[in-house]
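Handout, page 2. Input:
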Amino acid sequence: MKHTRKAVAAVIGLVAALSLTACNGDDNASADTSSPSASADKDSGNGDTGTGASSGGGEASQGTAAGTGDNSNGKVGICRTDELEVNATDNTTDKTEGVVTVVFKNGGGRDCAIKGFAGVDLTASTGDTLSVNRNGEQPVPGVLKDGDSAAFNITFPYNNSGGSGVRITSLVVTPPDETKHVTLDWPAGTLPVSDGEGAVKLEISPVGKVG
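Output:
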């Protein structure tokens, strides 16, 4: 187990911390209120919050279904996890930088506001969990009408080393300003065991409205 932890730590020389918390790697995405990720707990409520089995390139993993909510006070409330449909798709186009796009679709029957960074944790096949850093882009607020979508990208170093790399099994996502998360299958390939100078960083972009 010691050599496995070293491998995961090596690939994540670019992320903040490595914990030993195993996440649920079920085939179907699931919502969980009992143990929100450390990233979500840390940043919840500040408008810029944060909280990763190859399932076939390009195939989306379905998240939670629509929930409830209203705008009875005349203000647009934040997009709640229970009213968002969440999926992850492999959008990698070259053998240098990998890209997974996570989409939040508003299915709550009301307008909702979304801004900031989602929280993202990746879970390796060993059960080790790592949080993904934010990039330096400035978040832009958006309002999602029922049926509208917002999205963000996870960029990661493409494993072209010829080795098996570090296999990611699941992706834990917490929408901005929320503490409830969903668990999705990781739709892309493995990460390299080590990163060299100038290597692609493992990081996320802010959530932005699509279209």
